[in-house]
Amino acid sequence: IVFEFQTHRLWLAGALDRAQFHLTAAFNWLNRDALDDNELAALRRVIRRFGRACVIDPSRELEEMFEQMMARAEALGDQEARAFADYWTGAHYYGLGEPRRSLTALNRAVVAAEPLNSPSFLIQIRANLGQTNAISARYGDAIHHMDHAIAAKQASRQPGVASTSLAYCLSSPGLVRADMGDFDAAYADFDAAIDALENSNDPILPSLITQRCLALIYQGRFSEAAERAEWSEQR
């Protein structure tokens, strides 16, 4: 309990490196045979949370830890632990720019997550699969997973309520379509993403504008891209 409380405070303080340190120490202590029920539950929580402390700043130094967590979850035969270990490993490899390893882990995560009866988790995995397929230039698969995630998020969205996650999901296929040369569809995606925020002062709006700027650059509309980039920088 003390460990969990300290880790939560560290996350709130933004000290992700310390969170990684404590979670690693907890995993190493729990990575042994003959765990009682409480220790097994604690191990599941560590595996479920470890990636949250790493996804913002992925590091080669953490590769071995993710691989150990996947192996441990597999050995336990625990469906939830396997799903989260694979999911966070896939997200980590995506951040490291290794789409093949990311896709392998995320595809395993989908299989492990399907029996968990957690639609929101499965949607998130599919959204990540869309992004990873996109950087692999597998555009058809990327759009397929992104559209699936978008439809699910739109179905569960409350009318009039801003949705940051939906906005990101809507913006992601815009970049893919721009890279494919379908600029009209791309700008429609970006407009839908901004509309999902419901607020012109939302802190993630500059990120969405930056993605639109990339599409404008692809199209050779450099002056317009520069104007929008300057506006975004001032936000």
The total count of strands amounts to 0
Helix content: over 70%
Query: What radius of gyration results from the CA coordinates?
Result: 19 Å
The H/E string reads HHHHHHHHHHHH
Give the overall silhouette: elongated
Protein architecture, described:
This protein has helices at 2-13, 16-30, 37-50, 63-76, 79-95, 99-113, 119-135, 139-156, 164-179, 183-197, 205-218, 222-233. The protein is mainly alpha-helical. Helix 1 (2-13) runs antiparallel to helix 2 and helix 2 (16-30) runs antiparallel to helix 3 (37-50). The model is unreliable at 1-13 (pLDDT under 50).
Overview features:
235 residues; mainly alpha; 0% strand; elongated
Set down the secondary structure blueprint:
Elements: H1 2-13, H2 16-30, H3 37-50, H4 63-76, H5 79-95, H6 99-113, H7 119-135, H8 139-156, H9 164-179, H10 183-197, H11 205-218, H12 222-233
Helix pairs in contact: 1-2, 2-3, 3-5, 4-5, 5-6, 6-7, 7-8, 7-9, 8-9, 9-10, 9-11, 10-11, 11-12
Short description:
The protein is mostly helical and about 240 residues long. Helices cover about 75% and strands about 0% of the residues.
